[in-house]
From TrEMBL:
The keyword Membrane applies. This is Potassium channel domain-containing protein. One of its GO terms (cellular component) is voltage-gated potassium channel complex. Residues 20-109 form the Potassium channel domain. Pfam families: Ion_trans_2.
Amino acid sequence: MYLSFRRSEHALLALAFFVVMVLIVFSTLLYFAERGSWDETLGTFMNSDGDPSQFASIPAAMWFVIVTITTVGYGEITPRSFLGRLITVPLLVFGLLLIALPTFVLGREFSMVWDLMKEHQASEEEEEELPTPLASPILRRNRNRSSWDMRLDSLAAEAMMPLSAVNRRHAQRDRAELASQLNDLRATVETQGEMLRRMMEILDEKGKQRAVRENEPNNGWS
């Protein structure tokens, strides 16, 4: 999970910056849309219904924005005017994106890290299955531990890379794997072609022998 956060660092920072900007902008808009008129007697803003305004300050409007975009919705502060409700509509949509985007980013990165760890575990199991009579269990454990440390270092290095560099690295690895698979497929096709050619030669030879036997004169008794 730590590596997933590290790999998603830039995306999460960009999302946090966007949240702060939305918080400031919409809090200011709601403050001016919902503050109402100033009452000298009570020393506070009054809304159109004659009640003290719930958006008497930008921090109060900021609290409403936080409650709205996090989809908590306490309900103790609500916009009264049409303009305030109109400004609130984009906040509702942004609240859904605020929950969906981090889940998608972290889920994707966690899946990639998990696949890499599973590949490493499978490679370790294959190495353990190989016959190594000269290697002691202690040396084997040290070798596996050092290999695991190297893999973690590689994952940490990828986490520090920009997303474009990581994608290029994965693309290069995918191309290398594809080239290896194509070479294996070419070798398999060539081997099968050679086997088919030999089978055809054997069948042709048997056909010629049968034709020779059929064309030989019958010297037996009639």
